[in-house]
Design goal:
The protein is of the alpha/beta class. About 35% of the residues lie in helices and about 25% in strands. It folds into five domains: about 10-40 and about 130-315, TPP-binding domain (Rossmann fold), CATH 3.40.50; about 45-120, no CATH class; about 345-545, no CATH class; about 585-795, Response regulator (Rossmann fold, 3-Layer(aba) Sandwich), CATH 3.40.50; about 795-845, no CATH class. The protein has 29 helices and 37 strands. It has a seven-stranded parallel beta sheet with strand order 4-5-3-2-8-9-11. Mean pLDDT is about 85; it is low at about 1-5, about 195-205, about 205-210, about 320-325 and about 840-845.
Amino acid sequence: MNVKNDNISKLQFDEFLRAIGISKNDTFSLLLGAGCSINSDIPSAEDCIWEWKRDIYKTNNPSVLGWIDNYKNKKSQTIIQNWLDNQGIYPEKNTKEEYSFYAYKCYPIDEHRRQYFEKICSGKTPSIGYKTIPILAKSGMLDSVWTTNLDDLIITACAGKGIQAIEISLDTVQRINQRTQNRKELPVIKLHGDFKYGELKNTEKELLNQDECFRRKLIDYIQDKHLIVIGYSGRDASLMDTLKEAYSKKGGGILYWCGYGEYINAEVENLITIAKQNGRNAFYIPTNGFDSTLRKIAQIVVEENNSLNKELIGLHLTNNDKETFTPFDLNPERVNKVLKSNIFRIEFPDEVFVFDVNIQNKPWKYVDEKVLERLDISAVPYNKQIWSFGQLDVIRTVFGEVINGDIKRKPLADIKIYNTAISRLLLSTICKSLAQSNNLKTNFKNKLWIEDNFRNIAYQKVYNAIRLSFDKISGEYYLIINPDFEFANSDLEKSIIQNVGISFFHKLWNNKFNEYLENWRKLLMVGKNIYEYPYDSGTGFKFKISAAPIFTDICDLNNKYEKKHNVPSTLLKLKGIQFKEVPLLFSTKNGHRTTTDIHPMRGLLVNKPYETGINSFLGDTIELGVISPKLDTAIFYHFLEDQNSQIKKHNQNDDYIIDYEGFYKTYDISLNFPTPDDDEWEILEEPVLSKSIKQISQYIRQIICNSITKINSTTRRKIIVIYIPQRWEEYTSYTIDGETFDLHDYIKAFCAEKGIMSQLIREKTVQDYNQKCQIHWWLSLSFYVKSFRTPWILANSDNTTAFAGLGYSVDSKVDSNGHIVLGCSHIYSSSGEGLKFKLARISNDI
């Protein structure tokens, strides 16, 4: 069982690194467990246990379906564990006996166990953590490696790196005493044996008897040498007893037990307690894993050794992440453009005040009420502490009632800018600092504006503002500045905010965008790019912002010539390629041949849709069915009529949008829709507003679904168009008592299940006159595609390529490695046509 014991001796990771740095001339040993090899594609002990459980289950249940093979799937684990529990002969889940029990139960013959470990350990490539081991050995800091693992990752990592790994396993125990170690050798003691030859130790009986020679040597080794344990859970009772005996004796060697995360199991806690009781120094260190820990230890140890430091940097360039994933790396042949960005390099304060607190409920609300709108202090709750910038006496005054212990300065290292709390603290502080120094207004979170710099949009007073955010590129931090707006009146409907946003951003093209940001850059950064927080306070909390943004070298493939520019190389941080526009394939006017155009709207008007010939069996008319409330029939009918009308674009300077010429002229087929009096125009009754939001939402859902079913009962295929008025907007979604409802998603799913094509149109779309041309282009294309016709395809001669449409989101709990979560929403053929999915059980989770 894992426990969290706040009384156990702990070092935070940065404290551990400083301890290693100050004592790097001492001698260290490593003790490695199975967790170290996970990134080298070797299963962890936990994975082995589940694989053995699965095999036992499958061989006792031969008719089981194939999906049980994925033993990492939670559903599979539940089914397997329930069966094991019902047999009455297997150990309880998560007990320390599981590993040895299931290893023996699954493979009772010794040779078969050896073959299993040979299968999972052979041919693996060491991760970057293992590759730092020979560097640490050459530095003189690392004297030996002890491991419970059966693999050859340490031996492989040392090969050809100037260190001879001396492999000592159960059948070569004598080597540990019969040879003199020199500085170019590294003893690797395999406590549980080696899968290639000799005996192994993995069952309970075998593990109870640690080799006496190994045991005595380990006790002697760590009497005066520091031991770093990592990737090991402590499940080997004999080895843990040896460590307890070693740390019961007097000695100067320190025990650093590096675990994954904050939790410590009972066996490890007991060992550290015994060591402390006998006057030995022993600590638990929460880490992010083996590779990260060893890499950072190596950085500390070799930072003053030029040759080893270069070797370590070389490892970083070919680390395990880059070996696993293909790097996205552009090497343009020529540069003929330069792109100016809105990204400025920023250096954060070196330290932050951190202190433990006792806040019973809603820590974010408590902290925000205390400090959010104060200019002299910033703070956020983080990991059961408060992190804060400000003067010490102010912090004590504000949080005195909840402070537990001392207020300490903590180094701001490896800043997790994608973490919600850290990002909020830094953004809030920089906003307050910039506002203080330049007499600006702020929302205290991420926006700044000047009080007398505003305009009127849609009858609202709108301030010209900027929005701040952070990013991390190649290990450096950057401040991103984007144009934004702020209302004088914050209590506005969503539709008003959206309309103002469209009007505000629509005019901020290239040179206007640059001019807008240039004015802010001159105000904030020219001549005063160091900001102390609080202003002129002497706290030392300083933000340093580069006065110039970074630039990008661009290779424009439309231009075969190189063009020089005078942007300093120090500001050229990125590279990019501007690709040629992909030509689209259309039918010619007579329909006998195909032709291309890079502009989709122009291609439709000048030519014909690609699948013009398909009208012979789909028909030359697209039929609509309509659903709307009675109050809105007239306005919605006139809106639909515009589909068959000419509409001029609102902004004649808009180069991309072209005038809409009407449905028939564009697609060469008719678009028919009913009048409000026809049977295929369903009228919706108004909901009773005295009921709850949930009841009203469910009523609207039901009457729309009933109307869809009724219209669809006729024989003609049609697209059903549903009008949602603004007065119903608050009932289109809710989250109540854990239940979430979204009308749009529900209707789409309802129609998809019945094979019905649908289109929801909201009142704000109908009322948007500035974008009327774009809206009717978009809507006409939607109707055309939903009638199973293809307007164009990619003019792609390579028919072996498929395209995936990717969506993404940002996981704020993960730092820069792995914080982007990807999902595939569509798959397209080489010509850009949609492909159908074939659903099947997943045998391996990704």
